[in-house]
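tool_call: predict_structure(chain=1)
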Amino acid sequence: MHLPVPTWTSSWPTGRPVGVWRLRLNALGGDPGAVLRRLTVPSEHDRARRYAFAADRHRHLAGRALVRLVLSRWQNCTPASLAIAEGPHGKPRLQDPPADGPRLHFNIGHTGPVVVAAVSEAQPVGIDVEPHTRSVDAPSLAERVLTASERDRWRSRPASCRQAALLHLWTCKEAFLKATGEGLRRAPTTVESIADGSTVVALRDAPGSSAPSSAPADEWSVRPFSATDGILGAIVRKGTMPSPVSWVDATDIVTRSAE
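tool_result:
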């Protein structure tokens, strides 16, 4: 699966573009948990402790650390002063956004050692990442998440490409469902992808579906990308996707900020 490969920079972008920030946990060095705890707040530490495995604890803290660093810079405040709450369906949001400032939206995704955060001014955003080698029951997953025409298109792919192609479709749909805040309360089969070759370029409500009118899929933009070698990603934003999108590898930024 060949998706667009962003040019990642390690410096802060100018202005407030739609941005994707990436953190590579395996490049933090030392004790990642200690680094991330210095950038997050006690309630997030408590939440992280509920996870049985250290890797899951680190991913949770990394997502919140990324969001706090980015939003605090845009709002000229300290990371710890941001109040982050969960919406009615669990999507995190700023609890008390400034009345006279831009409304900032964000979303977090992670897989393995890679954590990503998408931030958007004014419009909701969602992001998802998956390893293209993820072990899945492909026929079963395809039945659950693809429309009939998507399944036909998927089955026409060479057998060696089908798993990555399926996960590409899934990341685009998952990013959309995260962006709207609906999650899996909305059936993935109500959303249909439009592809240019093998790459998704747009979304629409599936023909004949009972998709909620509050979030027509064709009002959202999708941009697939390669998060790193072997990891597929997609970012979805309501309205048009501004160009350029800012791509920041924040691993060094996180390390320096925690010192």
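agent: Helices lie at 32-37, 42-49, 54-75, 138-145, 148-155, 162-180, 251-257. Proceeding to next step.
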